[in-house]
Specification:
With 236 residues, the protein is an alpha/beta fold. The chain has helices at residues 28-36, 38-41, 74-82, 95-107, 120-126, 156-165, 179-191, 202-206, 216-223; strands spanning 63-68, 86-91, 113-116, 132-138, 166-176, 195-197, 229-235. Helices cover 33% and strands 19% of the residues. Substrate binds at residues 145, 177, 215-218.
Length: 236
């Protein structure tokens, strides 16, 4: 497809935690942004991880956060503006979602944001140990059928990956409107020795995160009468 970019490192079989990679045909502006702007922000795994992850950013950053599967980028773009001294890495293999975020960046640039458009686990395995202060996973594909549960991103292996790259005291935040996935995540994080759920009552998981701008997926969930849950786990 015109506008599709080449991988920046040797590919491997993806672990299938997400579905389609392409949606409707990109508009001309979106195609141009994918071709011309994305390569300037894309993390190149072929170069190997730097000794200090902050060295990848063109501006000085105090800490680094990761958002996995940012969708249309509403939350990620919002956070980069709120915290200009924090470096952000956004992962989204869905080309139309990436194009939407690039459009927002074209209108309101952010120098503290890097992007990755392939499988998040590839990036997680590349990142230096204890290099992140936070990881966000909002409204991931729920894979609602039982036979597809193995494709959910939250599992013991990926929690091991998150535990390795998060600093002690770092946060893993998970939001979803699918009850079975919320319960699934609570159980998996409860059983993992590196994570503790920081909640003292229902208010803690029914209230959106501080400064939360909302997302299109959340708006759809509310229209369809599904109640989102906002979970926060701390890396021990």
């Amino acid at each position: 497809m015109s506008g599709e970019t080449k991988p920046s490192h040797p590919t491997r079989q993806r672990e299938a935690f997400f579905g389609r990679l392409k949606g409707p045909k990109l508009r001309e502006r979106q195609r141009r942004l994918i071709e011309e702007v994305l390569p300037q922000r894309r993390i190149d795994l072929a170069k190997g991880p730097p000794s200090q992850l902050r060295d990848l950013f063109p501006v000085t950053v105090d800490e680094i956060r990761l958002e996995i599967g940012f969708g249309g980028g509403e939350h990620l773009h919002h956070e980069t503006g709120r915290y200009p001294e924090t470096g952000f890495i956004g992962v989204e293999p869905f080309i139309n979602g990436m194009a939407k975020l690039l459009g927002a960046l074209d209108d309101a640039p952010r120098d503290n944001l890097l992007l990755f458009d392939e499988d998040a686990v590839t990036l997680l395995d590349w990142l230096p140990t204890a290099s992140l202060s936070g990881v966000d996973l909002f409204y991931p594909d729920p894979w609602p059928k039982k036979r597809h549960f193995k494709r959910r991103f939250v599992n013991a292996t990926n929690l091991d990956r998150l535990a390795r790259v998060l600093k002690p005291g770092g946060h893993f935040r998970f939001a979803s409107d699918i009850d079975t996935y919320v319960n699934w995540t609570l159980v998996h994080c409860r059983d993992h020795p590196a994570f503790s759920w920081i909640a003292e009552g229902p208010f803690d998981w029914r209230t959106p995160y501080e400064g939360w701008p909302g997302t299109r997926y959340e708006a759809k969930a509310k229209r369809e009468k599904r109640t989102p849950a906002y979970l926060t786990f701390v890396r021990r």
